Amino acid sequence: MDSAIAEVDQYMGKVSTQTVGNTEIVVEDVRLAGHKQFSSLHVVTPSSLQLYLAPLGFHNASQQTAMKKEAPLCSSDLPWYLIVGWDYVIQVMAFSDESSTTPLHITQV
User: Fold this and answer.
1) Which one of 18, 58, 81, 89 has the lowest number of neighbouring Cβ atoms within 10 Å?
2) Which residue in 41, 59, 28 sits closest to 104, CA to CA?
3) Domain positions in the chain
4) Model confidence pLDDT, tens digit, residues 67-90
5) Are 24 and 8 in contact (CB under 8 A)?
6) How deeply is 21 buried, as exposed, middle or buried, from its count of CB atoms within 10 A (0-12, 13-18, 19+)?
7) Residue-level pLDDT at 67
8) Using CA atoms in the order 66, 108, 38, 23, what is the torsion angle rounded to 10 degrees?
9) What is the per-residue pLDDT for 91?
10) Which residue(s) pair with 17 in the sheet?
11) What's the rounded Cα separation, in Å, for the pair 61 and 58?
C-alpha cells in the first residue's frame, strides 16, 4: 500500500485517505497463514452531486439498486412530482470524472 495515498489502522481496519491516487490494499487472515485478499483503492475528487427520489415503500428496491452501484431512475435532473400523504427517501450520490455513472462510496460527510 502506498501510505502517501491511504493508511490502514492495523487494529481497526479503518482506511484513511491522504491524497488522490490509486493503491492496493492487502488483507491477511492471521488465522490462516498465507491467506491474503487484494483490493484496488481509487481515491478521487467528486465532480458532481445528484439527488435521487424514491417512495418510501420502494426503499428496499432503492437499496438493492445502490448495492448494484447503479443510480435510481428519479434523479434531480428531472422535476419531481410527489403524492400528498406519501413518504419519500432522498439519496445523495457523488460522482467523479473517473467513476462516470458509478456512484462513489461516501464514508464521511
Assistant:
1) 81
2) 41
3) 6-43, 48-95
4) 444 445 577 788 888 888 888 888
5) no
6) middle
7) 45
8) 120
9) 84
10) 6
11) 5
